[in-house]
## 1
Amino acid sequence: MARQAVSVVPPKRTAPAQEIVLPGNVQPFIASPIYSRTNGYLKKWYVDIGARVTQGQLLAVIETPEVDQQLQQSISNLNTAKANLALAETTRNRYQGLLQDNAVSQQDVDNAVGTYNADRATVEANQANVRQLQALQSFEKIYAPFTGVITARNIDIGDLINSGSSGGVKTDLFHISQPGTLRVYVNVPEEYSQGVKTGMTADLSLAEFPGRKFQGKLVRTADAINMTTRTLLIEIDVDNPAGTLLTGSYAEVHLAVPAQASTFLLPVNTLIFRSEGLRVGIVKDGKVVLSAVTPGHDFGNEIEIVAGLKADDQVVINPPDSIVSGQAVEIVQATLPGDIK
């Protein structure tokens, strides 16, 4: 019986690293809305969007007439309490001196000491109230919490400012971000998660910079797979001293992920689909052996095989549907696409 002629191809090892391209969100290293800690009306603002500010720089001033009046009243109450305390101290000292001469009773001395202690507590309470109102008054001036860029201004002169302490909606006065270093967050599919390690470098490409790459470094991962998306969240930091990249941009992140050991590439026309699972025909000693294989990534014309192949296997190309294990064949050598120079 004549042997069937078949073409065979050796498996091609995958590259030591495979580049994957994933979408990334460019965010500032630090970003924060700036709220007021006191209620009032905006008296003046000093910076607008795009302004570069330094930590501690004055951004706006709020008028708080109620707080100012409450502070004056509290200071007056404190002065009254101090005067009462001074009188109570004098009375206490006098009664303690008279007690030695038996000129007053012990009860009178105890009453004077109790009055002094009560007035001292009243002074301390009024001092705390004054400090609280002074702190609220200091919140009239809004300062930059860190060096950065103002990205939003949501108030104007005369606007009512609500701190939210009374249960109302807080007023966010400004938004500030620090774009000197950018954080790029990327969701890596679970199948690549084991190859993503801290310290790896990544290249960013943006539509507004065609042909240009920006290099970043993978600084941390979530160390957990998101159960909803089945992805691993990673953070890539990119130096941006000149502010070339804008926060909020969309970027394509290129990562070179190490390939798994002992993985191969085969043309898709070597696969045999059988009810018992995926198979390929391997020629051994002039006969075909149908071997089970485990597929990996599908690259279109080629497919990754992660298990079931060895480097010296001879795999049948375009196997007929009737091929079976043990069938005698005659080999016609073939090569992978792109191997012929």
## 2
Amino acid sequence: MADHTVKAFDEDITRLRGLIAEMGGLAQLAISDAMQALISGDEKLAGEVVERDRKLDQLESEVDALAIRTIALRAPMADDLREIIAALKIGGVLERIGDYAKNIAKRVGDIESRAKFEPLTLLPAMADIAAAMVHDVLTAFAARDPVLAREVIERDDKVDAFYDSIFRNLVSYMVENPATISTAAQLLFVARNIERIGDHATNVAEMVHFAALGTYPVDR
């Protein structure tokens, strides 16, 4: 990108990118800690995930304010305008990803017979794919890399396939073991939240593609 003639504008863009990077780091940590807490039954760690979500909310507000101020004061055009609009939308999506991680953390205390509940072992692999999507799409945003953004979009099919498999597995488990219905229902909720994280990473990837090229992927 060509150097801007207005130093303040450069500073605004740099600050906006920094806020998105900070939000992305917190969202990734929330996913990782929520899943660790779920698998281990660590309610203290789960509580920390819930508490840290406030920081994501605060950062989203900062992104909104900075993006709107920059558009109003600097009147950006073309590539710069697309990047600012993308950052504005991405901030909201990252806040939602944090909410999904928080929702998972809130279920930690509701899982019974954790050591003997076999379907619980299926969720970490699904969460790993979704978390990697979030990581890579933020890398794509920082580099304005539409190719990596499209790779992230393509990976969402794997998350969806995992969700379908886990859904069938848990339903079968509930039918065969009625006493596990409560715990299985909680894990269905967790799987749905992981699936939504993948969807939101896909949404960010579409925005990155738009910011870089001015077009959305043709198969969006």
## 3
Amino acid sequence: MKKSLILAIPALLLAASCAKTLPNVDLKSPSAVPGVYLVTSAERSLARSLSSTNQNGYISRLLVQYWTETTYNDEATYNLANRTIPDNVWTAYYQGALGNLNEAKRLISANGGIDAGTKANQLACVDVLAVHAWHNLVDTFGNVPYTQALDINNKTPVYDDAATIYTDLLKRLDADIAALKANPTAGSLGSADLIYNGDIPSWIRYANSLKLRLAMTTYDVDPARASTLVQQAAPNVFHSNSDAAQLAFESTNPNTNPLYEDLVQSGRYDYVGTNVFIDKQLVPTSDPRLPIYFQPVGGKATYAGAPYGPATNYSLWSNPGVILHQPTLPAMFLSYYEVQFLLAEAAARGINVGSSASDLYNNAVTASITYWENIAGVGNPSVDAPAYLAQPSVTYATATGDFKQKIGIQKWIALYNQPTQAWTEWRRLDYPKLQAPAVTYQGSGIPLRYFYPNSEQNLNNANRQAAATAIGAT
């Protein structure tokens, strides 16, 4: 694990068939905002944060070198300090996601018009989403305000230790899972839930899959505890691509996928694939996802990635794939193939999860290829996945390196539409081996965390400084 990440984050670093459109509710003149519809807003905000590649905040696709910029390359060379990237992400999580969820919790708790089982389910779903948002926030910044956060009367909340936050998040998930299991036939969020339409069994699988992710993230801190948590979660995680937590966008504004806004509506012809991803990884293995992830150069039959970092000619390189230009492409919160990779890693570390690392690795790769070919309407997964896995450089037994390298590289490929998590997994597993460009704004390697936002320096500087000192950063 990279030393800087340990300083920044102490030793830590949903189903397509159920995804829905926004509910039909009069938001122009409400007498009161129903708590469940604040969940709608929070889901939408979190989905946008996980999907966007907007240069003013969401640059994970650049940090893990899926893409680079050809013209305006500030973000590809890590100009975080002089821009509002940390501020925008901080605000999106605290206000757009966590703020709405906190208010939803308050309103649902105070609602005397729903039965106890329904209320328990609604609150558990709200908290699962909050855990997801919190862990992304911690993974991005390190120590953050947590116990004193979201209090409008406290303008200067203290920052909590990242490892302590993770411990509490895992406890919260256990409580949420227990509450959901206790009320399997009660109501829930219903049509306000854009991910699962309030389906409780789906939420239970999502919560367990999230527990698995957080447990594996903390493995290096406490292997025994992580192993126990993994074994608890493993039987109840996603079992197929149809279980995945994702949110389907609409074809018209303002509810289109932000990728569509970034790649089409913005008119910014700047993002292209990198040579480290296309030329060195996807092309040599004839990866069946290549023509889905990217387009051939200039309408030809060849693919080419640009050098990462320096400005170059946009027309010379492969652009993001056609599917990524679609306004309705779902935002992926947590995928089945990620879950299979997590279980493969657990098995490789000696945790009994009911299958071998090799079989789970094969399941993960197959699920990724199947997901992408099905959503793009191309290829034949039953043929393409086995052929890809049969290559010595891909087969688990013969691929280069230890389990971190084997799993890390294939996970990097699979998480193409989960760039936030891809960045976390790259920092955690140390693979693939990526190199920063020769010239960067901060004069060092690839960022392992975001700087604390300028707003915190202006409004909460004493606590910000204490947190920065604790992790040896800014």
